[in-house]
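Researcher: Predict the fold of Signal peptide peptidase SppA.
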Amino acid sequence: MSDDSRRDETDAPLGATSDQPQDRWTQGPEVAPRQHASTTAGAAGDSAETLRERQRLAQIEMMDRWVGGVLTEQRRSRRWKLFFRLLLLLVVLLLVASVVYNLYWSDPADAPPAQRHLAVIEVNGVIASDSPANAERIIKGLERASASDSAAAIVLHIDSPGGSPVQSQRIYAEIMRLREHSDKPILAVIEDIGASGAYYIASAADQIIASRASLVGSIGVIYAGFGFQDAISQIGVERRVMTAGENKAFLDPFQPLDEDAAAFWQGVLTQTHQQFIDDVRAGRGDRLSTQSEIFSGLIWSGEQGLELGLVDRLASLEEIAREEVGEASWEDYTPRLDPFDRLTRRFTQMAADALGVSASNSPLRYQAE
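Model: Structure tokens for Signal peptide peptidase SppA follow.
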């Protein structure tokens, strides 16, 4: 038998004969198996040196991947650092621009127009030391308006429920001073509401003007708090308060308010209320009605207020402007708020509203509820 025939018999599959037809799926040239991506396993017959070289290459590849990941993370970290640095730089630039703007660019009231006009000071929102309607800002606007030669009248444009007694008293005193020393009429024009501390301010003006549906009055003082003495015992919390002075913590909401403390605090409220009444009477004079309900804390419409002497007439700011200067236009003398200060105040007010607390520093309020 020749070598070729002997090779054919050897290569034939088990159980097959040379007479049987060959299967095209099992017969044919041998295909090399797919090489695995990893080179660490090596191949049969590789020497120890080859295997070590393959392992070294695999380690180098792993190290390259690790170094690549570290570099990617560092680049990402540098990008974030750059972003925050740019953000900080932007904030600083805005702060500097705000300071420069307020120092070198004047308010509209610093350069009033030559033609006659109404000098308007806005009293918007709660009257408090930390709100836009604070005494310092409004008094500054009053001083600017009083110094303007072309201002036909000073107008307090009020849309406020009231607020701090002290801030209201400061503004009231300044308006009363201007009534004596300024030749310009001072008008209080009430929009939606001019109640409590806002009415306190308005009562110092020469005239109070409102719309028929405006809310005016609410001449009273309020203190509001909570009593948690029962709740704190139910949840098992011990209240620890140390004072020097036996009545220092008499308004502590976690302690019951005894009769003596309540009587004392009511006396403070009554005295503050009497200050309110006296100043309103001084400002309004005999225009006020003699009805005792005026000082009971009730709030009235503009139309009702006209009958009670709380309001002098019913008109709008546009009508007043036409009467005084011939056209419905005016100049705003309210000092500008710093942009950052405005943002801070708004955030503080939003936080106070969300927590349900008053933004005023005083526990007493001339404020409509």
